[in-house]
Amino acid sequence: MKRSLVLLLPGGLILLAAVLLLRPRALPDSILPFIRTLPYLIMVIGLFLGWLFNRSRIVFAILILALADSVLLRFGAGKGAGGETGRIALQATALLVPLNLAVYAMLAERGLFTPRGLARVLPVLAQVLLVAWLCRPDQRGLAAALWHKFITMPWPAWTPLAQPALVAFGLALALQTTRVMLHRNALESGFLWALVAAFLAFHNARVDWVATTFFGVAGLVLVMSLLQTSYRMAYHDELTGLPGRRAMNESLLKLGSRYAVAMVDVDHFKQFNDQYGHRVGDQMLRMVAARLGEVTGGGEAFRYGGEEFSIIFPDKSVEEAVPHLEAVRKMVETSGFVLRGRDRPRKRPAKPKASTAPRNSVSVTVSIGVAGRDGRHQTPDQVIKAADRAMYRAKEDGRNRVRS
Questions:
Q1: Which residues make Cβ contacts (< 8 Å) with residue 167, sequence separation at least 6?
Q2: I want to staple 243 with a disulfide (CB 3.0 to 4.6 A). Which of 168, 247, 382, 392 is the partner?
Q3: For 399, which DSSP code?
Q4: At what angle do helices 245-253 and 213-235 cross, to 10 degrees?
């Protein structure tokens, strides 16, 4: 279910809304001038946000879409505008757009105004020159490869694209769908739906859509995916997957007059990190976070910072929260932590093999302090400080316990 939502949101819903609302005669004529201007506004906003968040992949993807849009506006899809030159430019652009989007989706972020980031402009410029070169009359023989037939069959009338362009879109869509299922994040999903929108853009003329509409939709999908990714980075801890400190602060603002807050600290974490290294320490934090995320009683776990976590219990007193905290403390203690051997794969295989090597496991425990809103502690900050003091009492009393 979660994988399906990642695949659909937000790009799938945006594209579905565009298909329903932007079809001919679906909207009043009075807003058509705005619809025609909207793609350019979206692309300007996308370029700005890509620069602001230092996301070079978004900037270059939108640049590719803008260049393709200019070709489509000039030559149109299926209209024969520009004669043979227009047909070549259209097919070459349709071939290059999906390949570019697939490549930029896979590239690691290198910043925008860095030598590596700026170097990515060169392939884009080279492709512009390549298309212009193919459009020259003396290169018509080479340009004929754009209509190469992999399969000899009557060509469907619904598409103006030749087989190489369709193959490029098919490969790019298959690759990006795989990446979405593997990585499951909004930005990868955004590139997938931008590919679909770009494909529809080359078919605008066949159904009388405005030429720039779906390139604008592709840009909007990327912009919304970028905003969703930035939101998640701000409010969720990347290492553990739990909501982060900012999300916790916002949750505290929504609490009523009755609540309890627990502060959780992993026992002896510094010694564990020093002995086994930061990578193993990160694995252990993920394990602890997973157990805390299973807390009952309406509690919600957050990554507070370092090896500290917090759990908020809305509408619960300290007395009501303690049994649930004891349960989650025992859950962490009994889970144990098996140290990863050097020959152990980083990802769980589909068919794990039984290992004869001894399992090197270590005990992991947490100390928990809990406090609630009362006459002495009226504000969330005061409650958190009281819970923090209770947590240190738990450590002083021998660790691996709950104190209030």
A1: 150
A2: 247
A3: S
A4: 80
The answer to whether 336 touches 363, Cβ cutoff 8 Å, is yes
Q: Active-site residues: which are they?
A: 307
pLDDT at 362: 80
In sequence order, what DSSP letters do the residues of 55-122 get, joined into one string?
Answer: -HHHHHHHHHHHHHHHHHHHH-SSS-TTHHHHHHHHHHHHHHHHHHHHHHHHSPP--SSSHHHHHTHH
For the chain, residues with pLDDT lower than 70 are: 1-7, 76-82, 155, 205-208, 210-211, 340-360
Three-class SS state of 365: coil
Read off the pLDDT of residues 342-388 as tens digits, 9 standing for 90 and up: 444 545 455 555 444 445 678 889 999 999 998 888 899 999 999 99
Residues of the chain with CATH 3.30.70.270: 245-339+361-403
- CA–CA separation, 264 vs 4, rounded Å? 34
Q: In this structure, what are the phi and psi dihedrals at residue 295, rounded to the nearest 5 degrees?
A: -60, 140
Interatomic CA distance for residues 269 and 284, integer angstroms? 9
In whole angstroms, give the CA distance from residue 171 to residue 179.
12
Enter the pTM of the model: 0.75
Residue 148 CA to chain centroid, in angstroms? 36
Q: Does domain 245-339+361-403 have CATH number 3.30.70.270?
A: yes
Q: What is the pLDDT of residues 159-213, one digit of tens each?
A: 889 999 999 999 999 999 999 888 888 889 999 999 999 999 988 766 667 667 8
Residue 349: the pLDDT is 52
Sign of CA dihedral 123, 125, 128, 129: negative
Yes or no: say if 235 and 300 are a contact pair by the CB < 8 Å rule.
Answer: no
Of 129, 78, 121, give the one whose Cα is nearest residue 100: 121
